[in-house]
Design a protein that fits this description.
mainly beta; eight-stranded antiparallel barrel; 6% helix
């Protein structure tokens, strides 16, 4: 951790003197699911969710920058554990506070972005439908036990246009893959988040 902080400080101090640290707001929608490495985990479907947050951009050299985003992200999945003659489906709604440091490469119009993310669970609800009956409740040991933390990597492409008074408007497409097993129950197999997101980013230099 000490080495990571020292490296971050070095990059920040190395930023060109004429380049300004930027503030940005972002938000959008996406689809997410949970992938099971164990074939017995059942079939999964995608859920629509929203995300929003803010962050800082720190220029390093020409065409390269560091970005630090803090987001509220909705995730989830539709889990189908049906067997012959019995229909069992779980609709899972999850929410996380996600922190995503990343690196950007590109010019003033088109760029690539990628890096790790770390998440803290904010909410988890599950709706279980079986034999024509439905049960709605919070996640837990009696239903679906989800870990409080998660981490993974994300990357994608973006494009931006300049507006007025230093403002820029960007559009990003991001693929996010979880690297940790989110299930607290080992019998559920190795379950990892996966999502595709599209979002708008409004940026402005600090002190403008």
């Amino acid at each position: 951790m000490r080495y990571a902080l020292a490296t971050l400080l070095m990059f920040t101090l190395a930023a060109p003197a004429h380049a300004q640290i930027g503030l940005h707001l972002l938000g959008g929608a996406g689809s997410s699911t949970v992938l099971f490495e164990d074939e017995d985990g059942g079939d999964t479907g995608y859920k629509l969710g929203y995300h929003a947050g803010a962050g800082l951009t720190v220029p390093v050299t020409r065409g390269i920058g560091l970005r630090f985003d803090a987001l509220y992200v909705q995730k989830g999945a539709v889990l189908d554990a049906s067997e012959p003659g019995v229909t069992i489906e779980a609709d899972v709604d999850l929410a996380y506070f996600e922190f995503a440091p990343s690196v950007t490469f590109g010019d003033e119009h088109v760029y690539a972005i990628g890096g790790p993310w770390f998440a803290l669970k904010a909410a988890c609800d599950v709706s279980i439908t079986a034999i024509g009956m439905s049960l709605d409740q919070e996640c837990g040991e009696d239903t679906l036990d989800i870990k409080d933390t998660d981490f993974g990597v994300a990357g994608g492409l973006g494009m931006k246009v300049r507006l007025v008074a230093g403002l820029t408007l960007g559009l990003e497409g991001i693929y996010s893959a979880g690297l940790a097993n989110v299930s607290a129950d080992d019998s559920d197999g190795n379950a990892k988040h996966q999502s595709m997101r599209g979002r708008l980013v409004i940026s402005m230099p600090l002190g403008w």
